[in-house]
Amino acid sequence: MTDQSLDKKTKEEIEENKEVEDIINLYESDPDKIYKVLEKSPDKIIKLISIAQSKLEYHSGPLPSPETLAEYKKIDEELFRTIVSMANNQSNHRIEIEKQVISSDIKSEKRGQWFAFILFFILIVGSFYLIYLEKYLGVAGVVSAIVGGIAIFINNKKAQRIEIDDKDKEMIENRPSKTDE
Length: 181
Hints:
Number of strands: 0
Helix content: over 70%
Low-confidence stretches: none
Number of helices: 6
Oligomer: single chain
């Protein structure tokens, strides 16, 4: 293609875009006039519809939209396979990491529960030993161990509930609305 034909094509595209922009501006300023203009030029209706469709198109996910994937496949079959393979590998990697995080969290919680139990047990045994020695400070130890254990349990349950509520809110906020589709 020569520079002259390229310039001509570019000028035509600019003029078409200007026409479409003028129609949009006309619609925004006086919606009734738009019908008269569009009756005279049905090809402009098609341009407006295609513009509206491209503005409303929305896709979300680990892979490009099916149309885009089909275009990649037309260009190069290997490129298509690479994109799908990368998305699959990323998904598998993410699943493995999530399994490791969950497993680690469970181990950490179990370890913390065992340490808390041992500490609680030592405090109770020590408190009863003090009571046995007629040191009534041991009563305070028993009471504080019981109250402390209950407070920790309630606080953990509350923190779990807050975390679940936050995740629910995040899922609701990130969910595509009907107008996005």
